[in-house]
Predict the structure.
Amino acid sequence: MGEKLVGERTELAYGNAGYPEALMTVPSPPERLYVVGSVDALVPGLAVIGARRATPYGLGCARRFARIAAQKGAVIVSGGARGCDSEAHRAALEVGGTTVVFLGGGCDELYPAAHRGLFQDIVDAGGAVVSEHPWGFKPLPFTFRARNRLIAGLAHAVLIVEAGVPSGTFSTADEALEAGRDVLVVPGAITSATSWGSNRLLLQGATPVVDDESFEDALFRSCGMLKWPDAPGALSPESTDDPVIEAVLAQPLSMDELYGVAVSAYGASNAQAKLMESLVKAEAAGLVARQANGRWAPVGDRPSAR
């Protein structure tokens, strides 16, 4: 056993305070979670996964999209493995973001051991290293597939940046679909064996990520990450005649519910753009905020929020 991670150690029992609500609905929810680092980091975010034997293309995509998501406030969730996983974690750290690692073994049996420094950096930056197994539990082949349900569970969406056939990445995609999470996939060359799995997932209906804009749109729909952080003409508390904002001020609403409001108000062709514009302005004015469960809700104890 190598040197232990330094940081706060917490055991979270199912149903008790601090146990992530998102993990209560995964198949066979862990009876306990063993955490090194901040339990506050265990909120739904974006899972970024891909090949261990990744190409420069896959590594670059992991860095690119994890960085964008982390800059927008999404917690980056992955498995700490060599290749795409570790690149996603590092990219989040580089922009001051928060990231969470789910291990296949206990938190005192780090795998890969060579990533101990990365794991410590994650803890030091306010993230967490997590396992469903006791501290000294040695990782076994079957435990890595089992932990994939936790990666998918603690995510609004799962982004696959590179995957061959066969691939352990597919099990995470399956877990994401079973948990009702969105699956986003970066396409690759049809001649590249490391992209055969990714392209197959796209054929089966996954959401394609073909550039920064399509990724930001997917983040908006899945995670509530706003596409435009600096919108001009922010609302004042007195100017809330926008139907989208009025709906949020009345009660917390999910992105799907808000999209329905926008469709009714503006029509399907303009709904997404209008919805993003309204939320950006209202957030800048301090009227609304996105909650950890993904819903948008009024800020403060406003009468319309009761």
Remarks:
- DSSP finds ten helices and eleven strands in the chain.
- The chain has a mean pLDDT of 86.
- The radius of gyration is 20 Å.
